[in-house]
What does this fold into?
Amino acid sequence: MPLIFGYGSLINKKSISNSIPGERELYPTRIYGYKRGWYASDNNVTWLGIKKRSGYTVNGVIFFVTDEEMSILDKRESIYKRLKVKSYSVLSDKYPFDKNNIIYTYIFEGKRNDSPIFSTYINMCLEGTIEQDRIMGFGYPKFTREFLETTYSWPKNNWVP
It folds into this structure.
């Protein structure tokens, strides 16, 4: 069964279940050779995206999906291109690891415009990272801090509350 690596709104269980209902486990993971930032723009909104960049890492989560669920996510993430992740480490000892599982993620290949970032989107992402901190038993926001520190191109303005 394939897995999806989520690094923005797909870190948040509620966000995932809005598209593909049902309970699912999320496993904290780090991928290598990618850089997360405010790169993706669509319909006058800026979203998080990742681009291939050696020397960078991105933390997020992986979760199992059926082929049908992956098709639903492909439609949801239509401004992105789905591709296989080659270099990663799972940060949870609860992951039922199988080297035959294929992990996919969504990258953005377009150009960012100066569209605003909605605070509700940031809050959704941060709710997911805080949940990972809780699940991993951190007494401080280690996962959340890494998320913030490895997200680039924060705008100085152009925010929508």
